[in-house]
Structure formats: C-alpha cells, structure tokens
Amino acid sequence: MKNRIHGLVPGYIREIVPYRPGKPIEEVERELHMHPIKLASNENPLGPSPRAIEAAHKALAGSNRYPDGSAFYLREALAARHKIPAENIIPGNGSTELIDLAARTVLVPGDTGVTAQGSFPLYYIAIRSVGAHLVEVPLRDYTFDLDAIARCVTPDTKLIYLANPNNPTGTMFTADDLDSFLARIPEHILVVLDEAYCDYVEDRNYSRSLDLVRGGESLLVLRTFSKVYGLAGLRVGYGIGPADLLAEMNKIRMPFNTSGVAQAAALAALDDAEHVRLSVESNRAGLAQLQTGLGVLGLHVIPSVTNFILTEFGYHTEPLCQELLQCGVIVRPMGWMGFPNAIRVSVGTSAENDKFLHALADVLSKSAAHKFETHKERK
Ligand SMILES: Cc1ncc(COP(=O)(O)O)c(C=O)c1O
C-alpha cells in the first residue's frame, strides 16, 4: 500500500502496533516439521464440549442460510442463566469484537480512553483506532491500579477498559475494589469490564458485575465462549450492559457477526455443566502443577487466578521462547505486552504441562544460562 492510497490512512491508524497472536500450530508444523504443543493463547486444552461439537455438526447443514443475526436463542439462554433481560445482552464475534465496538460507539477523535499499561493490547488498539487519546496507567503489583485510574479521569475521558482478571498477569481485583472505583467514576463514562477468564476464578471476593449492570451502572461486562467453553475457534462472545447502549452498538455491529454454527455450539456448551466442571478442575490441577514446577526451577511466578501464568526470568525472553519452540513448545514472550523479561504460559493438559516444564528445565540447564545472560548484558 506504499503509494498514494497510504496517505488516506490516518496517522493514528498507521502508528498502531499490530496485535501479535500466538503462533498457530500449523505454522510450526510447516516450518519445523514437528507437531508442537501450544500453550500460548489461553485456550481450553480439553477441547470443546462434545455436546457443542454435535450441535455444530447439526447446524452446519443449514449453512446455506444467513444466521439469526440477533442470536435470539443464545441471548435468551444467557438471559435466563444470568437473570437479566435479553435486551441487555449483545452477541459478539468473540468478545474482542465488542472491545472494538464499544470504542467505535462512544469515542470520537479527541476523546480519551483509559486502561492499564501491561494489559490486553486490543484495548489500546480500539482506543487508537478511532483517533482517541490513549492514557495507560501502570499496574500496581501486576494488578489494575483502580485508584490511579480513577485519578486519571478528566472531562475528556469517555471510556475505561478494565480486565478482571488481567491478561497477561493473571491477577484480579475484588468486587469491593470495583464498587469503590465506580463510586468515583462519573456516570457519563462507559466502563468496559472484560471478564474473559471469570469462570476460572475461585476467589469468593471476585465479581458482582452482573448485579451492577442490573442496578443500572454504566458498565459493559464482556464474557466469552473462547476460554472455559473451549470454542475459541468458533468466535462467540457477548456483552452484558445497559439496553440503550447496546441498541446503539447494535446499529453499527455487523448484522451476522456470530455464525449459525457458532450460536448452536455456544448454546449447547452453555448447557454442558459437566464439561465446564471438568475444565475448571483440570485447570486447577494444571495451575498447581505449573506453579510448583516453575518454582522448583527457581523462577519468579506471578500467582494466577486464570488459565495462564506469567513468569519473570530477569532477562529478555525472546531467545528462550525460540529455544522452547525448537523443543516443540509454543509459549509467548511478553515484551510486546510490556513484560520483556517474562513469558506467559497457558495451562495445558497434565502431559502438556509436563512437557513444557521438562523442555524449560532442559533449555535452562544446557547452553541457556550462558546464552541468555549474555543477552541480558547486551541489553
Ligand atoms: C483479556 C481478554 N479478553 C478477551 C479475550 C477473548 O477474546 P475472544 O472472546 O474474542 O476470543 C481474551 C483472549 O485471549 C483476553 O485475554
């Protein structure tokens, strides 16, 4: 596009640093001629619910028709599940679509959007993509610093993104913390609360977000079928928020943003409590396995309430992740998310976690110490 057309693209879009998805398994197979394990995108290692697979198969036969763009049955089921009217629920092509849609609905160039530095990059991209000014507030103890964010609010602030739990740190703030925060935020500001990993959190002080929406807060809560429900590849998420806001968002969302197959699978997954239970249990065991294993290697692990763990190494981790890739393990170096000395590893099956821990021990004990330390000195 390096011609005159490029000049049409506003500077604020040209300056955006692109999102870096985890390396697809197929890419590693192509390049390294091996079948790797992927612990890079916080997916459900158990796969989708068998009932979701069956429902998706059935729905495939109707794929000559456009889907129900309003996702009526899925929204009805979610409404019953969350005890909230269906008009308070909006379907998304993954919850990430709704991150973008929220910014496009409320921000104009010159407004300000606020989020944390060291959080999910799609918040920054959404704010910048509409020409709004981005304010990034440093984390405190690897967690959203709600107090500092509240202090940053100015008359130009229109939108605040919060991730609870946060990606990539795996940390959370409590329901009481959120209450105190919202009490300080003017009502004309939209707070988007991304709860993609909520199903893994076992802390009883976690969230009362849906009560807040029911109580009329200016809050848009985002949930997804990509994590505990194991449907990341089908792209379904949803937002729960004020009906009048969702009505405006609906005007500019693509009319068929969730496919019929995805809606059918999500509906079936929602009903498969057993698969959710197994997934949460397996994650609990996997987190413990990884936390212990990383601790044994003497690494600084950030305690996680999610299905991934951030680990600090004290030196730049790109080369380390390359070495792990050669061993058939895909994990993410976290420089692009603000943690150049860390990797984030997703919880896999017990065998996958084991393979990762062995590969890491191997890499660290062989040439690694020397090589990575040298890298640190050069930095
Ligand atoms: C903070 C956060 N929000 C949302 C998502 C999920 O996105 P989606 O529902 O579009 O798959 C992720 C997935 O990685 C995430 O880390």
Give the topology.
Elements: H1 11-14, H2 25-32, E1 37-38, H3 50-60, H4 72-82, E2 89-92, H5 95-106, E3 112-117, H6 121-129, E4 133-138, H7 146-152, E5 157-163, H8 175-184, E6 190-194, H9 209-214, E7 219-224, E8 237-240, H10 243-252, H11 260-271, H12 273-296, E9 300-301, E10 308-312, H13 318-326, E11 329-330, E12 332-334, E13 339-346, H14 350-378
Parallel strand pairs: 1-11, 3-4, 3-5, 5-6, 6-7
Antiparallel strand pairs: 2-8, 7-8, 9-10, 10-13, 12-13
The chain binds pyridoxal-5'-phosphate (PLP).
The CATH architecture category of the largest domain equals 3-Layer(aba) Sandwich
Q: Kindly identify the CATH topology of the largest domain.
A: Aspartate Aminotransferase, domain 2
Q: Provide the low-confidence segments as ranges.
A: none
CATH C-level label of the largest domain = Alpha Beta
What is the molecular shape? globular
Q: Helical segment tally? A: 14
Number of strands: 13
Main sheet summary: 7 strands, mixed
Strand order of the largest sheet: 2-8-7-6-5-3-4
Order of helices and strands: HHEHHEHEHEHEHEHEEHHHEEHEEEH
User: What percent of residues are in strands?
Assistant: 15-25%
Bound chemical compounds: pyridoxal-5'-phosphate
Terminal Cα span: 34 Å
CATH superfamily heading of the largest domain: Type I PLP-dependent aspartate aminotransferase-like (Major domain)
Features:
379 residues; alpha/beta; Aspartate Aminotransferase, domain 1; 2 domains; 13 strands; 16% strand; globular
